[in-house]
Amino acid sequence: MNQEKLEQAEREFLSIFPGGFDNPALVAEGKKHHVQHRTKQAQEWFSNEAFALPQVVAEHMAKIVTQSSLVSRFEKPAFKRLIENMTWSDREQYAFSLFDMLHGDQERGFDTMVSLLKPHKLAKWPVITVIPYYFAPNREVFVKPTTIKKIIAQYELNDLVYRPLPDYGFYMGLKGHIDRMKSQVDPSLVGDNAAFTWFLSRSVQV
Predict the structure, then answer these.
(1) Whose CA is closest to 60, among 77, 47, 42, 73?
(2) Which of 64, 124, 128, 140 is within CB 3.0–4.6 Å of 132 for a Cys-Cys bond?
(3) Residues spanned by the domain of 152
């Protein structure tokens, strides 16, 4: 990781937005994405106890993905149709893949979700990572491909090789880098991981 570039990005960002993400302009911008509302929804809809009704969980998964400002508008209708047309068994399996991602064996849940969505060409990074991010925005990482590819190149994260098909090893490697980078910047930039990756990519020129 290129420490010098991280320090430069921090200086430039704080010179434009004093106070980091507490800057009024960024607070106002953040409200447009309704992250706090989505987090409240996710923590209620996808609590451990909620999975007693996996069909309802699947419906809520479809709702939160299709209403998210972070997911491409081109993917939303196809995703909604897929969930509506899934068999009872597939919807249950899809719901329990999320249970594993949030409450159990995260790797197994991640891989199961990818395998369910891949035949329908919907195993996309934003679709896979948006709900875990909303559920735990300070812990999980939302992977927007254009943003993450820029960060990898700019900060020389040479052990990460981006591929379009979501891969758990890459996801964990990215989380590790994000956590390390958060530990090395001003506390005003630490917190919501989607905001942090936006900060990292904001002035990227690659």
Answers:
(1) 42
(2) 140
(3) 3-21+141-202
Residue 4 has pLDDT above 60, yes or no: yes
Q: What is the pLDDT of residue 58?
A: 93
Q: Give the pLDDT of residue 33.
A: 72
Same domain assignment for residues 80 and 11: no
Do 124 and 46 fall into the same domain? yes
pLDDT in tens, 140-195: 999 999 999 999 998 999 899 999 999 999 999 999 999 999 999 989 888 789 88
pTM, entire model: 0.90
pLDDT at 204: 52
* φ and ψ at residue 92, rounded to 5 degrees: -65, -45
Residues 1, 177: Cα–Cα separation, whole Å: 8
Q: For 144, how many CA atoms within 13 A lie in the half-sphere containing its CB?
A: 17
Q: Report helix angle 145-154 to 193-202, nearest 10.
A: 60
Q: Which two tokens stand for residue 71?
A: 């997911």
Residue 26 banded pLDDT, cuts 50, 70, 90: confident
Whole-angstrom Cα distance, residue 170 to residue 18? 33
CA distances from 76 to 123, 147, 164, 182, 198 (A): 12, 20, 18, 31, 22
Give, rounded to a whole angstrom, the gap between the first and last alpha carbons of the chain: 15
Instruction: Give the span between the Cα atoms of 176 and 174, in whole angstroms.
Output: 5
CA dist 90 and 138 (Å) reads 30
Q: Quick one: tokens of 8? A: 């430069």
